[in-house]
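Spend some time on this chain, tokens included, and walk me through the fold:

. . .
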Amino acid sequence: MRVNFINFSDPKDHKYFLLTGGEFILKQDAIKKILQKLADDKFTEKVSISHDELDTIQEIISRNIGGSLFQENLIIHIKHTSGKFPEKIKYLLEDAQIFQSSNIALIIESSIEKTPASGPWISNFDSYGLIINCSKLKVMDEKIWLKRQLDFLPKDLLPIFGGSIFQNNEANLLGQKNEVALLKLLFLNEHIIHESNTDHMIFGSGISAFELEDLLIQRNFKQALKTINYMREQDHQNSAPIIWIIAKVINSCLESLKATNKKSALIKSGVWASKINLYLDLMKRAKTKEFLKLNEEMLKIDLINKGIIKAETWQQIDTVVLKLQDATASQT
């Protein structure tokens, strides 16, 4: 059976997998799903065989096929990284016996872009296994892949974040994945991502991912604007992380203001327990309509980045921060 990566979601009952194509990130994603499914099926032992170790394949298969005294379930993970598809792997797959063993699972990563239309080895794999095409994605499929990575985001923020990530990293899945990882730190709560594991999330300017958020929710807007100005001077082309943090603060406050239980709404938005009281203090005198206006201002940034509105992105960022200051100011 054959499938393109974009249509692959569940290994189902398969135990034999051939991953082709040069998109390493897609192979990583597919292998993660495959290993999770095999682990559920009690396949926990794994032997990895590199291109230079192909001579050992037959010995490992012979030693494990049909089970052993202890009936271990074994995953054999073969990595072919360059050149033509190796004859030694073909020879292994031409013998259908490998596909009859109940205690062996097979994962073959290959750099070949296309598989042959016919031949004994590919016919066997087509019949008994799953062939996953991990070649470069078309633009529309790449957008679908990115949207799936961002499934943790509130729907109203998806156009802002998804659009900027794709615009900055089109055809660069590794770049997209790295920026998604930063967003997860901002939007998933500490029960999923622990604060102790986030020290490495530093912007190119040397400022941590959470420093600007802390300044905003503590209403230290003067220092927040200085920090934004510093980040602009260090990396003028990369405003996306700053936009994300400001949008996260505004969206979390807006959802909380609209909710009956403000604290629960903040938790649902991914606000960490240690910051909930700061968020509640920030919103103490705020009104929902003011944060709706702020949300509209954030959407303008997306339109500016796309060239639909003629304005300067960094100036709009400063404008939003100043309006956030006004929206949360003490009423006299």
In short: Residues 190-201 have pLDDT under 50 and may be disordered. The beta strands are 2-4, 16-20, 45-49, 74-80, 104-110, 130-133. The first helix runs from residue 24 to 40.
